[in-house]
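This part of the workshop introduces the protein records we will be handling. An example says more than a description, so a record of this kind follows.
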Amino acid sequence: MPSAAASVVDPISGYCAATRTFHSLREPVPLPPPDLPLSFPAFAFSFLPSPLPSHAALIDSATGEAVSFPALLAQVRALATALRSHLRVSRGDVAFVLAPPSLHTPVLYFALMAVGAVVSPANPALTTGELAHLAALSKPSVAFAVSSTASKLPPGLTTVVLLDSPGFLSFLQGPGDASVMDAAVIRQSDPAVVLYSSGTTGLAKAVVLTHRNIMSSRVMAASAPAVPEVLLLTVPVFHVYGFVFCLRPVMAANTLVLHTPTRFDARAVLEAVGRFRVTRLALAPPALLAIARTAEGEDSVTASTATLQAVLCGGASLSPELLRRFSQKFPQVCVTQGYGLTETTAGFCRNIGVEESRRVGSVGRLSWGTEAKIIDPETGAALPPGVPGELLVRGPFVMKGYLGDKESTSKVLDSEGWLRTGDVCMIGKDGFVSVVDRMKEIIKYKGYQVAPAELEDLLQTHPGIDEAGVVGYPDDQVGELPVAFVVGCSGSSLHEAQIKDFVAKQVVHYKRIHRVFVVDSIPKNASGKILRKDLAKLALHQIRAKL
């Protein structure tokens, strides 16, 4: 924070009236000088104590197989050596990764970045056509897959390595040359990873994150605990949330338990919490809902979760009703929410500690090094605390840009480093950030703005509704009409008129639901965000079919 601005920054909200900018009030967590040549792996490994910790670095939740810290470092060095000598991977090469999570995943990520290559993981569930689009954006020169996903790889990749092959395993066991990780001078501003935006509002874009961007994830974390923690990661490691948490525990010398099954099983996750004495659990709201449902149906599953202290929930908004249901079954667990984008290297604000986590509806305070503005979307004028508008952020976590797409980059990232999030947010007079909704998802009814998230939260307080999704349906007279898709609880009997009346009694007239569709599931992306564009298409189809 600039010293000149510090004198006029409000000590409670972090707001500077002179610049109309919000500043973080968190304790500083310094990063290395930006012009110092340094890769993220070298940065991360520099925090490990000597001698190395005796507890496990990585554990596979399905098999119980573990990798020690000495073995992890040895494998990274061996693989980095093989990448250079056998595969001729060099600085700037993009490596496409199409594989489910495994104990090899963190090793591969670290080794690729250590030699200056760019990691580009993709969702193995995507179709061949979707993957071809991603590869066309990132232009990889080498790919890493497994036997079951290799056939989906786009044509034209001359070098393909199977992670479940004897050849790859021999790379991990080969002689490691520590100097190979410094063979090329890697700048912090060099690309380290290309991740693909969620595509909730259009085709996916290739987000370029630098080594320094990923280093900044240390700033986003809370202070390192005195006792090593055990983190169970259930979110996809090709998504920015999972990617960062796949690497961050190493810096704190904590144990990372990777949840490797392809389908989320709440009962299996709760069993893993007890088996590996997990203290922190990272997941998305749909997974939290599944765990709450399981605990409500089987009281015995909560007996083995005594070690669990915190749940880290990100990737999508968390409704107050879901939080209430979870806390009722797990009263000893602190649920921490955060907020961020792929373009911001995951979260740049979060709740820290029990007291902050009690603030339902808030995603926390700005992390150290973060500057923020709330602007009027129409005029661009900066707004004061307590007034909602589009959130702009600046800091060491902001992406380099969209690969090969200067036009899209310039639309969201200006010359001064301010990134437009596209989210309607509010920063209160107490400095806490609340996410109102996506600007492009706001429903316009006769000029009134209707936030889908608000109606979804309300619908989920209905005793017969488990999940809800709300979108706008085009109407010639009013602009858009709010329509809802709901998933019923087991055994519930839902009726459209009753649900519409339930909402109408609790909202102003222009927020009333005009149509209700009972469905088996709400479409979401890998991070748990509702795919409103899919719901909008479904609404058009359903309503037109009945005309």
